[in-house]
Amino acid sequence: MEEIELFIKKVIETKKAAVIAMIIDIEGSSYRKEGAWMLFIDEEEPLGMISGGCLENDLHIQAKQLYCSGKTKLLTYDLSSEDDLGWGRGAGCNGIVHILLRDVDQQFKDALAITYKSLSNDEPVLMIQSMKNFNQYIFSSKQHDPFEFWDQDNDAEWLAAKPFQQIARQQKFGEHTYFIQLIWPKPHLYVIGAGIDARPLVHFASESGFFVHVLDWREKLADLKYFPTAMSVHHSMKSSLLDEIHLSPLDSVIIMTHDFEIDRELVKKLQTTQLLYLGLLGSKERTARLVEHPTKTFIRTPVGLSIGADGPAEIAISIIAELIAVKRGEFP
Question: Residue 150 has what pLDDT?
């Protein structure tokens, strides 16, 4: 669901009519989960997917009817039917999907603008949407919290959430039902080392929902032409590769310089910083010489899932698979 931040950015920048679709409930199984968004902008191609392709055309038609209306509409699609009239024919699903379509009026756009500022500062945002009155909604974060939801209950699930933990469901507060969703900022991945083997990794990571940054001391390699999908490419001295970046517990780093002395200095700096993921290329024996505190849970070595990968592309895929598993909480 990392595309949500990009959708919000697109909405607040456009002057055209826009409609947001979001899954608010699922009965049974579905291609996407609660909290998945899709964006429709007038005279532009839709962004994102709500299903495996069976609902998008109808959602587009429904969205066009809402442009500039200020209205919200609740749609229900039964994907369990397999006859010619069923939405789920050939979709491989067996559930009922409830989708909220909302025309983005100025008030909602203003709320999204504040939300985007929080996400840009690496702050997750809690969205609370009334299911009785669709005009009642809240976007709450630690930095912008006029309704004090973050302080209301220190044991609240969203306060104790692990990085990128998915929280999206309907829940009762008092006598009313609300849809709550914890929106996380798009994750950042820093790839240190701009060799040829880094190119497929940066490409696949960008396609998988990461803001990717490449760092290297070799000017000829640290060139955006080799990494067209990267958010940034940094060139600096060996001793100052990390000086220009600010790392947070939501960030991931992969070291692939193939230079032992440089790796040792980088690991020495990074293993005292809390990260989501720190991946090290090389054997366990090599890593044992690099890492002073091997008990750090965010250090992954050898980097990537063990799938028998061979060559830059396959190794990159194994690394991205491990990154996704860590981000989704599939690894301790």
Answer: 44
What is residue 295's predicted lDDT score, i.e. its pLDDT?
62
* Class of residue 127 by CB neighbours under 10 A (exposed 0-12, middle 13-18, buried 19+): buried
Which of 107, 126, 145 is the endpoint of a domain?
107
* Residue 93, pLDDT score: 57
- Residue 124 contacts residue 161 (beta carbons within 8 Å): yes
Q: Which domain CATH number covers 282?
A: 3.40.50.720
Q: For position 57, what pLDDT does the model report?
A: 92
Q: Domain limits at 302?
A: 188-327
Shared domain for 198 and 307, answered yes or no, is yes
Domain assignment of residue 332, yes or no: no
